[in-house]
User: What shape does this take?
Amino acid sequence: MGRNSGPAWTRHRVLVLLAAVVAGAGLAAVVVGVDGSVAASSPVAGSAQPKPKSAAATNTLTKKSSAPTPTVDATSVPADPTAALAAAMAPLSANKSGDFSIAVLDQETGVTASFNPDETYATASIVKADILAVLLYQSQQQGTPLTDDEDTAATKMIEASDNDSATALWDDVGSAAGMTTANHAFGLRDTVAGTDDYWGLTTTNVADQLTLLSVLMSTKSPLDDASRKYAGDLMHQVEPDQVWGVSAAADAGTTPALKNGWLPVDSDNDLWAINSIGQVSHSGHTYLVAYLSGSQPDEQTGIDQASAVSKAAVAAVAGS
Assistant: This one.
């Protein structure tokens, strides 16, 4: 979209004995950081600092109910996750619209599986997550925090998928040249920035999108803790009508980190690119998921397929 057509203390178990007559216990929900930590690191001096967000907008995946969290049984995890994913995709692929690819990474185990991984697609608005990563990376390299204008634009770009904000930040980071330099530093090998500032026509594949998500959501990242938290806060707060795709794989009561993209592509006879990338909590594990598609007959058909494929893919890799 844009210049183209188209998210002090843990209550440990408390046992209160009242004169050996009354016993009571209380257990609070455990909030687990997306990188596996249980407490946020202190911001690094000179790094991009997040504006204060609501308590719900933390870079965590939090259960909102007291119902027990389902967990992945080690005996149920498939011995060959790629084969399990292919089997799960077979009926969906047989009745697919357009073309699609998906990749899933279990952040706890490091297990990765992908389906149709070599296909490349126009990014549409998921490139906004990449623009954000590059903005934060350059801010760190320069040792300066984001300006108020950059913070405002970044918030609109991710939470509302605002195109004008994306264009402003694309220009700020150096357009295609700046994106390419930073993406190489991130390890994105097959992503090609859109030419003539058509940022929505950047092309990529699911492997590179998993790498980008790792930059934004993993401790194994060139981004510091404060920058990753800033990105996570925004990706946990996308507008409700944009919550679809990989979010379908998330357990009930959890909030996924998400960025979606949708665009009719001129060079594809105005058929739609429908994409979804993000981080979800599923059966006690945290997964990075990248879904890309092209040649969708219309927006809603593409969105429905993105959600169905994402849900089936994560379940297959989890063995759930």
Observations:
- The domain at 16-318 is CATH 3.40.710.10 (Beta-lactamase).
- The first helix runs from residue 81 to 94.
